[in-house]
Amino acid sequence: MLVHKWTSLVSTAFLLMLCITGLPLIFKEEIQHAIDPPPALAAPTTPGAIVSADTIAANALAARPGEAMVALWFQYDGNIIVAQSAAPATPMPRPSTPQAFDWRSGQSLGPPRAESSGFMLVVEKLHTELFAGLPGALFLGVMGLMLVLAVVSGVVLYAPFMRRLDFGTVRQGGSTRLKWLDLHNLLGVVTVVWALVVGVTGIINTFHDLAAAAVRENFLDLAASYRNAPPPKRFTSIDAAIAAARLAKPDGTLQSVWYPGTRFSTPQHYAVFQHGTTPLTKRMLYVALIDAETGKLTDMPDMPWYAKALFVSQPLHFGDYGGLPLKIIWALLDIITIVVLGSGLYLWLDRRKLRTRGA
Predict the structure, then answer these.
(1) Rg of the Cα trace of the chain?
(2) Residue ranges of the alpha helices (H) in 93-225?
(3) How far apart are CA 38 and CA 199, in angstroms?
(4) For FRET with 21, which of 73, 140, 143, 222 sits at 20 to 30 Å CA-CA?
(5) Average pLDDT of 160-166?
């Protein structure tokens, strides 16, 4: 009883905020598409033809004299490349400038479409980190743990209560408080599995930055034989690095390429990231470390378990596995959970009021 009471009370305000901000984030892609539609691309003159990635990178640097390439990102089924460059010899993470190009024609498209902007960016920052960076994210992870404890303890409390009543009973003859108690218990049980899934995946997601840093350290460990090697005197073609990665994983879809010495590579390697192609593996990332001087594959390490857990949990948290129908179900369960949290707060305040009157 005390566990359910205090875990619920301590976390209620933050959980309400997470549920309210999570509602538009379930439909993030649809809302962002309406706010900032994808660029309209001209029909290719030669179907299937693409411009060299090296040419795209050279054009990006020509528009930003004095900068160095950081990464290439592949968007919209590989039709758009985002070239990310930054001033050299600046500490990571570097302030960088992204430029979008049509990969089929090489045409510059200007600044790329943001994944989140305006209202959606505010909502996302509030939902994921309370505008407080890693400390805010970890604090919300603790609130997620409180949710899991509240749900589990609520089930333990509800089980003996249900022995006296049929499942789903909402007693009509009693007080308003009694009706809300029955409704609170019923809706809590209906959403119990969803709340546990969202709570656990939310906790996992709060470790995103720590997991990313650990993955990078893992890359450096894998390239230990290069640790004392001098920086590459010349870089091989980025197209050759991509070709070597695709040869190692021919069924992958390009996600990004990180240049040597940047956040997700080593000082001597290109890091070529690809997605899988199945409904599950397209949420996963696979990396090939390509020697930047020779263009040969050094290693294709398996992602650590914590990174895989993160890849799976991120889309599951927002119901992004089954298209729009699953998102709608997720939204309905989110709304029901808001009612559960609100009714729980009402019941606690009403009980305190009754005790005060009794005193």
Answers:
(1) 25
(2) 118-129, 133-162, 176-190, 192-205, 208-222
(3) 32
(4) 73
(5) 65
In eight-state DSSP terms, residue 275 is: E
The model's pTM is 0.86
**What are the pLDDT digits (tens) for 26-77?**
999 899 888 888 777 777 767 677 899 999 999 999 999 999 999 999 988 7
From the number of C-beta atoms within 10 Å of its C-beta (0-12, 13-18, 19+), residue 265 rates as buried
Nearest-angstrom CA–CA distance, 223 and 149 = 42
pLDDT of residue 195: 92
Complete edge-to-edge strand list for the sheet that includes strand 297-299: 108-110, 96-102, 80-86, 68-75, 253-258, 269-275, 285-291, 297-299
- Could you report the per-residue pLDDT of 239-259, keeping only the tens digit for each? 999 999 999 999 999 999 999
Average pLDDT on 296-309 reads 90
CA pair distance 268, 266, nearest whole angstrom: 5
Half-sphere exposure of 221 (CA within 13 A, CB side): 8
Percent of the chain with pLDDT over 90: 46
Nearest to 194 by CA among 228, 235, 147: 147
| Cβ contacts of 74 within 8 Å, gap of 6 or more | 80, 81, 82, 103, 253, 254, 255, 256
Asked whether the beta carbons of 326 and 319 are under 8 A apart, the reply is yes
The token pair at 36 is: 């900032």
Instruction: Give exposure, 310-319, as e/b (b: 16+ Cβ within 10 Å).
Output: bbbbeebbbb
